[in-house]
């Protein structure tokens, strides 16, 4: 008798899961269609938000902020930058250059 009850519960659970999966699939398909518009809108908003001020100095809201290379001073997206000894660099070459310099910080 217990097994029978268990089977019924399993049956309902399975149906509930199927419904959830179908909804998730539908949402995923719709989400893909909307994602393009959403990102385009976001970019537009970001452009309007800055209002033409100096963008290099004040962009803390960006998901991928620009970081200044300690070697050459070039601004690079954080995802592409390399962190060595607490300093950020635009490429591995500059990290090596900076590390090979005996007085990197005290040069200035
Ligand atoms: Zn660099």
Automatic annotation (TrEMBL):
So which domain of life are we looking at?
Bacteria
Q: Which InterPro entries match?
A: PP0621-like
The ranges of region (Disordered) come to: 27-60
Q: Where is the composition biased (Low complexity)?
A: 31-43
Q: Extract the NCBIfam families matched here.
A: PP0621_fam
Q: What is this protein called?
A: Pyrimidine deaminase
Q: Where does this protein come from, organism-wise? A: Caballeronia glebae
